[in-house]
């Protein structure tokens, strides 16, 4: 994938991020942690819950998360790190909390 394309994807997600509510950012953090630390047990239960069938279309936010997941899975580790640095500029508190949670989960201290 070209660097230009990845850069545009990151800018798009960063733009969405600036418009998300605190609750949506919290959900996004869980999603990001699940992608980076696949052994997170909570992700299994969340995945099972997301299989529910609904008669209404997904929200714009859910569509944004889906696109992010598709893009993120194609990014290299360096590109993923660059993305987190972009988030750091936008919301240092979010990234600080993210780093705390990532450290806690990767050290095997369990889930909340």
If you had to describe this structure to a student in words, what would you say it looks like?
It holds the Pfam family DUF4508. InterPro entries: DUF4508. By secondary structure, this protein is mainly alpha-helical. The chain has helices at residues 3-19, 22-36, 41-49, 60-74, 77-90, 92-106. The protein has one domain (3-46, 58-106). It is 76% helix and 0% strand. Helix 5 (77-90) packs across helix 6 (92-106). The longest helix is centred in the first third of the chain and has 17 residues, at 3-19. 12% of the residues are buried. The mean pLDDT is 85.
Question: What attributes does this structure have?
Answer:
112 residues, mainly alpha, 0% strand, globular
Question: Which percent range fits the helix content?
Answer: over 70%
Largest sheet: none
Task: Give the topology string: H per helix, E per strand.
Answer: HHHHHH
Q: What structural class should be given to the helix and strand makeup?
A: mainly alpha
Number of strand segments? 0
Which term fits the overall shape? globular
Span between termini: 36 Å
Uncertain runs with pLDDT below 50, 5 residues or more? none
Please indicate the count of domains: 1
Query: Could you report the average pLDDT, rounded to the nearest whole number?
Result: 85
- Strand content range: under 5%
Helix run count? 6
Rounded to the nearest angstrom, the radius of gyration is: 14 Å
